Inverse folding.
């Protein structure tokens, strides 16, 4: 009877170490996916920043070229004495 009672009430309990291993594997998989997503986003942002810096540099170069090509203009008002208002009462 003792052998039959052991076989009759079987329990399919999972040992705690197997549960912990499953949890660990799940957490590692989640962390791996998050790391991949973060690295992908970082690379995209880096690429956008480099493109922006390159375009800003080209705009600065164009502005410098235009400024160099444009002759300096003397201001006429700088050579004259400032006008004074005379108030007569």
């Amino acid at each position: 009877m003792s052998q039959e009672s052991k076989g009759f009430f079987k329990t399919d309990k999972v040992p705690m170490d197997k549960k912990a291993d499953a949890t660990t594997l799940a957490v590692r998989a989640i962390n791996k996916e998050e790391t991949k997503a973060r690295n992908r986003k970082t690379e995209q942002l880096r690429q956008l920043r480099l493109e922006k810096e390159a375009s800003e540099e080209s705009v600065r170069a164009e502005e410098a070229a235009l400024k160099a090509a444009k002759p300096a203009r003397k201001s006429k008002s700088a050579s004259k004495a400032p006008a004074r208002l005379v108030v007569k009462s």
User: Anything to note?
Assistant: The chain has a mean pLDDT of 82. The longest helix spans residues 16-69. The helical segments are 2-8, 16-69, 76-79. The two ends are 132 Å apart (CA to CA).
